[in-house]
UniProtKB/TrEMBL annotation, chain A:
PROSITE patterns: PR55_1, PR55_2. Belongs to the phosphatase 2A regulatory subunit B family. One of its GO terms (molecular function) is protein phosphatase regulator activity. It comes from Labrus bergylta. This is Serine/threonine-protein phosphatase 2A 55 kDa regulatory subunit B. Keywords: Repeat, WD repeat. PP2A consists of a common heterodimeric core enzyme, composed of a 36 kDa catalytic subunit (subunit C) and a 65 kDa constant regulatory subunit (PR65 or subunit A), that associates with a variety of regulatory subunits. One of its GO terms (cellular component) is protein phosphatase type 2A complex. GO terms for biological process: blood vessel lumenization. Signal peptide: none annotated.
UniProtKB/TrEMBL annotation, chain B:
Residues 71-81 have a biased composition (Low complexity). This is Immediate early response 2b. Residues 90-103 have a biased composition (Acidic residues). PANTHER family: IMMEDIATE EARLY RESPONSE GENE (PTHR15895). The lineage of its organism: Eukaryota, Metazoa, Chordata, Craniata, Vertebrata. Residues 47-64 have a biased composition (Basic and acidic residues). Belongs to the IER family. InterPro entries: IER (IPR008653).
Length: 445, 185
């Protein structure tokens, strides 16, 4: 792998999606995920579609520049539905995609909307049979009297066709809106989490799931917190965490009991009383939780910061990074324009040395844990010449604005980067703006 | 009082957000509704405490202009009621103002002719930030009592929403967002 974050120079590689400023709502990207090798990159959108990009074989003529991602498969994963009992429309928006580790030639992924999870098989077909004994080429059956000899069809090459087919549909298990899915390291089970409950599924079984967490109070009027994200530990198949709207994370061990309402560990940082405001509760709500690849740490994202927690220390995070602290004085306006409810995700790089998350004005931030350095970069069409190096950006919080700095008031809050993903092995990142997917690469020396 | 004005503004914004979230595609979001209600509660508490310190002795009469014949009456509330909107069946209506919950239940069973039990005292001028939600009458039309059953449609039991047809009684912020029923479709 290339050097630590501080030495990285990020270059524009590709951008996917429509250029025009008028964004169709269905095209808004709602999730981005690399598969386990990084060869495939999946995106889901508000229209219920999944687009998978595949990394092409290295370009021999430009060895200093890693290969590109091209469209591999596109399919409609979810359709809008209507719950007649509750008179509610169920959105087709893809909330999360999670890849299964590859076991055979085909690829499998789980995609979910608010209510239903689907297992999709993506397989390649590059041969077709020809020369049937009983059928004509167009499929019509021959007159049996005309068949005089026996022949066996042969497989001949054809243009590559990528097919996506739904293999399992996991439905009717969630009353509330699903916010997370996570595949277990045992490769047999996965969890799905909604606002109040977490269910455990077996990948082969669709008509049953086990409820493992239920925080619904007997009296809904006593509701004080909801589940915001959940994830299995990358190596320990009995361990998972879930985050809450109150800023706490609970680690649960499925060996302890069937219903994991009692946590094994509770991660919580005491609130700083000097920061108290009307909106303290909203900004402490955790929007994403991700284990590090080595399984020793987890990262949480709340509205203003990213926190790294050591699984062995519950009373405070080991590292805290401010994403856009300059927004703290603007919380009232952000409440009015709904931005305060935005759910930013976060991700680790392959060796857990750098973390990344998005912000507004199409900015995204990287924090190098070892070097204690951070950088703000921008995903924009203006910086999209091939291999153009991204220039670090700076936001001026107040006072005199230097050249090349942007003042807080000129930030575009409609341009937000909520979803980012980092290639599991290389320094390739996928950053989703509203309806475009940017791919950046570290400039290989 | 700056804090007071801020609290009022936040309350108004929150109410309109709760109201707007009824018509959101995909149904009411529990998480969002919970956060809104938490903000409303903070703002309500600030507003309350600042108002109590303001009006010590005024005994203004409440303007009980809302028709007593109209469907649901609004019993006087000691505090404004913030009600969480959820997509769950009716019996699981979350309510962030716990102490008012039983009054909510009773309210839905009130007969149309129940007298208004609006609270008198400490009322100030109309909260100007709240929209008037009274339906506009066509010429010649009269207001009539809506039967209690219309306040909840079958499938819509689960959706509690700010009423379109209720007058928000001008003088009293306390009852501003307490009366909820699904509007006629």
């Amino acid at each position: 792998m290339a050097g630590p974050g501080g030495d990285m120079q990020w270059c524009f590689s590709q951008v996917k999606g429509a250029i025009d400023d008028d964004v169709a709502e269905a095209d808004i990207i709602s999730t981005v995920e690399f598969n386990h090798t990084g060869e495939l990159l999946a995106t889901g959108d508000k229209g219920g579609r999944v687009v998978i990009f595949q990394q092409e074989i290295e370009n021999k003529s430009q060895p200093q520049f890693r290969s590109e991602y091209n469209v591999y498969s596109t399919f409609q994963s979810h359709e809008p539905e209507f719950d007649y009992l509750k008179s509610l429309e169920i959105e087709e928006k893809i909330n999360k995609i999670r890849w299964l580790p590859q076991k055979n030639a085909a690829q499998f992924l789980l995609s979910t909307n608010d209510k239903t999870i689907k297992l999709w098989k993506i397989s390649e077909r590059d041969k077709r049979p020809e020369g049937y004994n009983l059928k004509e080429e167009d499929g019509r059956y021959k007159d049996p009297n005309t068949i005089m000899s026996l022949r066996v069809p042969v497989l001949i090459p054809m243009d590559l066709m990528v097919e996506a087919s739904p293999r399992r549909v996991f439905a009717n298990a969630h009353t509330y809106h699903i916010n997370s899915i996570s595949v277990n390291s045992d490769n047999e089970t996965y969890l799905s989490a909604d606002d109040l409950r977490i269910n455990l599924w077996h990948l082969e079984i669709t008509d049953r799931s086990f409820n493992i967490v239920d925080i619904k109070p007997a009296n809904m009027e006593e509701l004080t917190e909801v589940i915001t994200a959940a994830e299995f530990h990358p190596h320990q198949c009995n361990t998972f965490v879930y985050s809450s709207s109150k800023g706490t994370i609970r680690l649960c061990d499925m060996r302890a009991s069937a219903l994991c309402d009692k946590h094994s560990k509770l991660f919580e940082e005491p609130e700083d009383p000097s920061n108290r405001s009307f909106f303290s509760e909203i900004i402490s709500s955790i929007s994403d939780v991700k284990f590090s690849h080595n399984g020793r740490y987890m990262m949480t994202r709340d509205y203003l910061s990213v926190k790294i927690w050591d699984l062995n220390m519950e009373n405070r995070p080991v590292e805290t990074y401010q994403v856009h602290e300059y927004l703290r004085s603007k919380l009232c306006s952000l409440y009015e324009n709904d931005c305060i409810f935005d759910k930013f995700e976060c991700c680790w790089n392959g060796n857990d040395s750098v973390v990344m998350t998005g912000s507004y004005n199409n900015f995204f931030r990287m924090f190098d844990r070892g070097q204690r350095r951070d950088v703000t970069l921008e995903a924009s069409r203006e910086n999209s010449k091939p291999m153009q190096v991204l220039k670090p950006r700076k936001v001026c919080a107040g006072g005199k604005r230097k050249k090349d700095e942007i003042s807080v008031d000129s930030l575009d809050f409609n341009k937000k980067i909520l979803h980012t993903a980092w290639h599991p092995q290389d320094n390739i990142i996928a950053v989703a703006t509203t309806n475009n997917l940017y791919i950046f690469q570290d400039k290989v020396n | 009082m700056e804090v007071n004005a801020e609290a009022r503004r936040i309350l108004a914004v929150s109410i309109s957000k709760l109201y707007a979230s009824r018509t959101q595609r995909g149904g009411l979001r529990l998480h969002r509704s919970l956060l809104l209600s938490l903000v409303m509660r903070s703002a309500r508490d600030i507003y309350h405490s600042s108002r109590e310190s303001e009006c010590q002795s005024s005994e203004e009469r409440m303007d009980t202009s809302s028709d007593p014949e109209e469907g649901q009456q609004q019993p006087g509330m000691p505090e404004p009621q913030t009600t969480l909107i959820s997509s769950e069946p009716a019996q699981e209506e979350p309510d962030s103002a716990d102490e008012e919950c039983e009054i909510t239940e009773d309210k839905e069973n009130l007969s149309p002719t129940r007298q208004s039990r609006k609270r008198r005292g400490k009322a100030s001028a109309a909260p100007d930030f709240l929209p008037i939600k009274r339906a506009r009458l066509e010429p010649g039309e009269e207001r009539y009592a809506a039967p209690p059953s219309c306040c909840r449609s079958g499938a819509g039991d689960s959706l509690i929403a700010l009423s379109l047809n209720r007058v928000i009684p001008p003088p009293n912020i306390h009852t501003a967002y307490e009366c909820l029923h699904k509007p006629h479709r």
